Amino acid sequence: MLANEFGDHLIVVDLDWLASSFPDLSDILPITQGGQKDVFGCKHRQHGRCVLKLIRPRPIAQQYLDRECEAVSRLRALAVPNIPEIHDVGTCTSPVGPVLWVLEEFVPGRDLSEILSDGPLGEDQLLALARDLLTTAVSAESLEIVHRDIKPKNIRIDTEGKAWLIDFGIARVLDLESITPTDAVSGPCTPGYSAPEQFRYDKREISGSSDLFAIGVVLYECARGANPFIEGARDRLEILHRVERDPLPRLGLEWDEDGKFCDLVMALTQKRPYQRPRRCKDALEWLDSIANETEGQ
Amino acid sequence: MDLYLQFGWGMMDHGRKLIKKWGGGVSILSARDLTDEQLVSLSRQLQELGGSVLLDPQFYLPRSQHHRLTAHAYWPQDYETTGFAGPAMQGMMTTLAQLNSTLQTTYFIVPGERAEDVDELWLDSQRDLINTARRSTDQPLMVTICLSDSAVRDVEQISRIMDEVSERPVDAYYLVLEKPRTAYLTDDPVWVARCLDLAAGLRRTLAEVVVGYSNHQQLVMACSGVTAIASGTYANVRSFPLSKFQAQQGRPMQRAVWYYYPQALSEYRLPYLDIAFRKGLREELLPQPETGYAEPLFAGSQPSASGWSEPQAFRHYLCALRQQARGAVQSTFDATLQSCRATLDRAEALIQHLGEHGVYAERRTFAKALLANRSGLNVLEQTQGPVLRHEWSTLA
């Protein structure tokens, strides 16, 4: 048994079990395994190259598995741009316990986290990334869906430079009762990216605005090349404290002479939802106005 | 940002004269200080002069023993916290709606209880009051948000209000915010910062925001894009002393006459103006811009012997404040912020300069509020500054 950086145990799923449980799949190979999620590359008889995700709820949430499955199922029917198509979804009992499985379109390209290891993004890449992410957020918001885990590892940049937001596996469909038990001390979140209201697990406050916060942090990291909430932090608790307490230092970007893009990022990363743009749509329109001005110069 | 007249005791004649002078303006009538008959006749007079009116039902303390308040027909005779959401509340709203209709108010100010803490109980009460008001009138609603100083200072409580607001938007908000230690001018930067934050958050929902019971310290609210601040004559309508709504108190006694020196954001008693005149500072103390009420004070060599009295002082104050409020908002958020900061800087320099000549504003010096206001503006700039900068054209 292995453990990841946060001490979550990694239980490796048996490939033979996978092959027998998913007879339509072939060439199954692990991509990532850890925490609550294992990801496999594979070929599907009908859909071709795909990704299979096995999501293990924490024991306390197992009784909510069917509801979580329902939430993800609903995503299949929704037209959210820049997210991989979900081919199929279900629940089953695996050798490591009950799991939710999701079979989705494979997006060729690289994770944003991998791209960032080469250094910060330039103006064009940054504006394109912002546009793709906000477009997705606008669409999700209109359907009352919150991704809740936007971070570089969950963003794939395809071979044409388009950003795809992956892993809607922990999305909360707002018109369903929360998929996380009410007695949980915190909801799903990634320290350093998730909005303060998420790790406070203030359900009333979690909305599309929470995704705006994460998008803002991602854009900040892409512009600066580092995430100040995470950089040099002692542990997860310190990251959470920083997110709750410390404002991000203002960005200074050469191409953003009047600071309008920096303003947008600062607005997105405010600690309280009401201090951010009111809706994802407002943030996208704001970005468009910046892009138009930039193009006009 | 406009200045509305906040009515209190002895305000009727001032109100009529000022609305006539201005050729219009909004008056917030005080149920505590006016009978139904007075409300009706005064509102008609003000409207004939080109003004418009709002009625503050002053339901801050439902168990108030203030006889002039509780004598109004809309005031519930048997207030029970648990049972009030039913027919009693409906009865109150129906009567209030009729009164508002008679007065031809521009908004229906929804009565709001003062929140010691913003908790579920208070939020439930607010929801009930708003829903009942909706059923009772076709007028646009202006929702009262009346908060204790500790509630104002707590960002969690402000967040709860904003969370509620985002789910249930209304046309307008009437903010009634207690100052720490019931101060006239507060030196508490957290209180100022939270007021700015709350007001900006509300205004960004595109609702009108009126900050009641204000004085010149609230001129910084221009940076939050608020619609208006409301102020009046005596100190008890330029800030919000809760005790004045608890039980009937004596009428304000004849007090010192204060000259509001707008450039210094400070008020000076006339004997200190005498000293200033002797020191050759007369010209410097002239109000900029003029209000039309201060000339007698500056006509002779000894202001304290000029016969300049309380009514002139009140009207001068309100005219000066109105001009400052109207001039505070600029075409951009940054220009507004810069203008507010420049006003504070200039006030600081003048207070110091006059002090060096032995001219003091005593307890009404703005010196104690300068840092709090500067700090509050800094916090606003850091938090909602970027979004206000972007949205300013839709707010101001």
Describe the structure.
The complex is a heterodimer of chains A (297) and B (396). Chain A is of the alpha+beta class. Chain A has 9 helices and 12 strands. Chain A has helices at residues 15-21, 65-76, 112-116, 123-142, 196-199, 208-224, 236-245, 260-268, 280-296, and strands spanning 2-3, 9-10, 25-34, 37-44, 48-55, 86-94, 97-105, 109-111, 145-146, 155-158, 163-165, 172-173. A 5-stranded antiparallel sheet of chain A has the order 3-4-5-7-6, with helices on both faces. In chain A, strands 8-10-11 form a 3-stranded antiparallel sheet. A two-stranded antiparallel ribbon of chain A has the order 1-2. In chain A, helix 4 (123-142) packs antiparallel against helix 6 (208-224) and helix 4 (123-142) packs antiparallel against helix 9 (280-296). The longest helix of chain A is centred in the middle third of the chain and has 20 residues, at 123-142. Chain A is globular and about 60 Å long. The termini of chain A are far apart. By secondary structure, chain B is of the alpha/beta class. Chain B folds into 2 domains: 2-245, TIM Barrel; 258-385, no CATH class. Chain B is 47% helix and 13% strand. Chain B is built from 16 helices and 11 strands. In chain B, the strands form 2 sheets. In chain B, strands 1, 2, 3, 4, 5, 6, 7, 8 and 9 form a 9-stranded parallel sheet that branches. A two-stranded antiparallel ribbon of chain B has the order 10-11. In chain B, helix 2 links the parallel strand 2 (25-30) and strand 3. The longest helix of chain B is centred in the C-terminal third of the chain and has 24 residues, at 333-356. Chain B is globular, with a radius of gyration of 21 Å. Chain A binds chain B through residues 204-205, 247, 260, 262-264, 266-267, 270-278, 286, and chain B through 155, 159, 162-163, 165-166, 197, 201, 204-205, 382-387, 389-390.
